[in-house]
Predict the structure.
Amino acid sequence: MNPYLQYMYSYPHKTAYGLLYGVRLEQYADRLSGSENSLYFHIPFCQSKCGYCNLFSVTGQSEAAMEQYVGAMERQARQWSASFPQDVEFADLTLGGGTPLLLPERQLERVFRIATEGMGFEPAGRHIVVETSPGQTTEEKLWLLKEHHVTRVSMGVQSFRGEDLEAIHRSHSVEQVERALECIQKVGFTCVNLDLIYGIPGQTVSGLWQSLERALAYEPEELFVYPLYIKKDTYLYNKGVRRPSQTYEMYVQLRAYLRERGYRPYSMRRFVKETAADVSSDVGSCGFGNTVSIGCGARSYIGNLHFCTPYSVRQSQCRELMRKYIKEEDYREIRHGYLLTDDEQKRRFIIKNILFGCGLSLTEYETAFSGEAQKEFPILRDWVRRGYAKEQAGRILLTEQGFCLSDYLGPMLISDEVREKMCRSDVSPLELPGGGSS
């Protein structure tokens, strides 16, 4: 059994997206009215490409290119917001990438202004999240984040050992990590999250423990721990690198260790310090919220419409897709995505709840879909029978073993149709009609 088949953070996976015809934003915008909405800005710029990264990002871009891109985001935001209902509200804002803090300060300021003036985001009392990397985390930019009411800073550390960083082709140093964390502590944020990776080639249990100890010394409110995935077209994939066979055993020990140190697991990856002030995002069910995303490579979810620009990892294709995005005249035409059927929406609801947060509420499923989850998806009963899940107080929750095997269990819920589309022959996104223009 391979415990690491796929990370199911969303459904359907972006590789299942395809051409859409005759779909415009205006047809779906009314679904944002009175709903739970999130706002996301994708900043695809990186100083260098990490060895494992299969996200949409580009390297080696000038400040002029970044300015052009932010200008395109502003045009997209204004076109989109003109189509939204008057009562649309956003509960949170995230700047992700890429590396948002690679932007010059004036462009970073501009992004926040686009969110507030262009999209109507009200920052007071809202969750505002910014992702960063050690090499770009300066005190000046952190104070800028503070001025714009950022509540959570998430930094991709990956490891506190230089040999691990070198093995995954990560460009920052341990010294840069420590300087960045000192700056973050000095400025002060409600929540600091650190990302770590396990299963790095050559990584030992004692080496992983050293990284964990150094991370915990900074008392972050959250830790996200990820297994190393080696995806097609990444540097590590092209080098033939493979994940160590003891990766799963390392995770089981890691999970128990973090529990002992006062970090409660909310999923396979997310650990929250017991004294952290706010874990409200894990209360209640999820799966119906909308996400409005601005930028090239960013995915939006509005009702059963999921869409983005065509996906690529290769740098040449990412640059060309971004060029087309910048030149786009009508951002409201949706050309690439997925229209979820009722069955796919059920699968999404189960995945978004049973693998994360407080489990799958059988009552909420029945209310939403007029059916019984265990009858429509007998695999849930099978998981209970095999000890991967349990039924408790009207919910189906993963057991400790089930959480550890989330990347093995989750893919079992993928439909045949989505799986077929994910496995279809690769087509260059630049060969798609309108590639990179939605």
About this structure: Confidence is low (pLDDT under 50) at residues 279-283, 431-438. The first strand starts at residue 18 and ends at 24.
